[in-house]
């Protein structure tokens, strides 16, 4: 189980620490991973922390996790979500902006209310313990990741522009 970690208020570091502590009590033998551009948080024992991992290291960390979570108060596009999905992680995120553009709740991941650490832990536990559900979520997530390729992005943009042009010239 893993997450990215940041000290800015928007990343909600307190919730990440709380979630890791709850998961550590519920799943004491399950490895937990955090990576960040900042320093390691205090108060979480047994968590593997990597500061500024290389792309290769980040891929290894994502690939070693069954579930990845994002507990931000607000988030833009959410690259870590797509990165985790691409590496085979089931994803749980707060519904904080960008993630809701990527995650369809219950289909390719789960969205929870901002600040609801108990529901976040429940969804992480559900995905961790239910292999069939996790595999289905991950299969759907791979389709999501594939829809974010450059050629598909260009096709979408071209479609939007064509629609705008057609609507203006009727």
From TrEMBL:
GO terms for molecular function: glycosyltransferase activity. This is Glycosyl transferase family 1 domain-containing protein. Residues 55-143 form the Glycosyl transferase family domain. InterPro entries: Glyco_trans_1, Glycosyltransferase_grp1. PANTHER family: SULFOQUINOVOSYL TRANSFERASE SQD2. Pfam families: Glycos_transf_1.
């Amino acid at each position: 189980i893993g997450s990215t970690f940041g000290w800015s208020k928007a990343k909600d570091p307190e919730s990440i620490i709380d979630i890791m502590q709850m998961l550590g009590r519920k799943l004491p033998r399950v490895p937990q991973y955090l990576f960040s551009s900042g320093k390691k948080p205090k108060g979480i024992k047994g968590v593997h922390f990597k500061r500024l991992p290389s792309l290769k290291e980040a891929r290894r960390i994502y690939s070693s996790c069954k579930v990845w979570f994002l507990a931000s108060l607000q988030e833009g596009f959410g690259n870590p979500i797509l990165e985790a999905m691409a590496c085979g992680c089931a994803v749980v995120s707060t519904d904080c902006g960008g993630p809701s553009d990527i995650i369809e709740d219950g289909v390719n991941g789960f969205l929870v209310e901002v600040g609801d650490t108990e529901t976040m832990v429940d969804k992480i536990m559900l995905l961790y313990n239910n292999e069939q559900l996790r595999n289905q979520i991950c299969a759907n997530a791979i389709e999501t990741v594939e829809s974010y390729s450059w050629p598909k992005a260009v096709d979408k943009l071209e479609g939007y522009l064509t629609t705008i042009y057609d609507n203006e010239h009727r």
